[in-house]
């Protein structure tokens, strides 16, 4: 009888030990966790999740995520052509306030998809249709492709859509004459806490520095003209050629610089500071894409860079 009792006690101890190991085994890692570690792992974290870094992530060979906005919306780049010389086109830096700049980028994407042969074999064309997806979303209420009928009828909403979700003007957040407080027309706007403080402008910086495009074309509205870039080092000869080529083909007037009011932290001027030819194409108003004019300018650049 005594041996039976001892045997039963031993089996009970073995069972308890096995149950303990089972409860504290951490998945497929092969690690046995202490009771304290198990408790800590089950506690909710007191820290905010680490934001996704704004670096290019392939989606497929024709599309990549170059970063995420303040509200974690994807900033997408679409790629066309197979050449080694990259031309980069950017719309929607001012989100919902300049929503037609995103639409002209989408029209370009439609055109390139339907007519791939227009891209010279030595070129790769990248289109970032919306650099400020949060500002655009606040005005059109959706991510991705939209129509003019989706735009909010509230003028106050449209104007506020110029800024990102941190109420920063992204075109005052780049490193050329950056200031924490910039100017838009006769109004003061925030340029952020530092240059590239915003995930959207940082995503653009990372993309440019990684991919080194040959030239960059950025759509804005609304003046009606093609403006060269410059950050106190003069207009690059290639930038001047870029400006005149696009202007002549499109019918927009060409300008050496934007002198309507002082701009700090401007994206194309930052590109100029880094010796990358860049132009601002300002649509004539805030509603029309003026696609035929812009198509002519785009095709002229394709011809220019095919040589």
Automatic annotation (TrEMBL):
Signal peptide: none annotated. Its cofactor is Zn(2+). Residues 21-305 form the Peptidase M14 domain. Residues 36-48 have a biased composition (Polar residues). It comes from the Bacteria. Keywords: Hydrolase, Metalloprotease, Protease, Zinc. The keyword NAD does not apply. Residues 36-58 are annotated as: Disordered. GO terms for cellular component: extracellular space. InterPro entries: Peptidase_M14. Belongs to the peptidase M14 family. This is Peptidase M14 domain-containing protein.
């Amino acid at each position: 009888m005594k041996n039976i009792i001892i045997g039963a006690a031993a089996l009970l101890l073995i069972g308890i030990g096995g149950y303990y190991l089972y409860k504290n085994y951490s998945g497929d890692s092969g690690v046995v966790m202490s009771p304290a570690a198990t408790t800590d792992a089950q506690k909710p974290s007191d820290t905010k999740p680490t934001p996704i870094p704004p670096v290019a992530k392939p989606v497929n060979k024709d599309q990549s995520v170059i970063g995420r906005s303040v509200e974690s919306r994807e900033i997408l780049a679409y790629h066309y052509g197979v050449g080694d010389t990259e031309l980069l086109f950017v719309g929607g830096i001012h989100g919902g306030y300049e929503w037609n700049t995103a639409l002209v980028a989408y029209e370009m994407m439609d055109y390139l998809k339907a007519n791939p042969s227009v891209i010279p074999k030595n070129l790769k064309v990248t289109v970032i249709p919306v650099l400020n997806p949060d500002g655009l979303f606040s005005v059109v209420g959706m991510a991705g492709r939209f129509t003019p009928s989706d735009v909010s009828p509230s003028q106050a909403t449209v104007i506020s859509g110029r800024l990102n979700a941190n109420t920063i003007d992204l075109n005052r957040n780049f490193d050329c004459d950056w200031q924490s407080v910039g100017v838009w027309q006769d109004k003061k706007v925030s340029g952020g806490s530092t240059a590239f403080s915003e995930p959207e402008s940082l995503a653009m910086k990372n993309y440019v520095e990684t991919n080194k495009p040959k030239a960059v074309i950025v759509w804005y509205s609304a003046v009606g003209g093609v403006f060269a870039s410059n950050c106190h080092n003069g207009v690059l000869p290639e930038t001047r050629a870029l400006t005149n080529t696009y202007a002549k083909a499109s019918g927009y007037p060409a300008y050496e610089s934007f002198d309507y009011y002082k701009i700090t932290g401007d994206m194309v001027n930052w590109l100029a500071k880094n010796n990358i030819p860049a132009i601002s194409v300002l649509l004539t108003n805030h509603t029309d894409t003026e696609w035929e004019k812009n198509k002519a300018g785009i095709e002229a650049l394709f011809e220019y860079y095919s040589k």
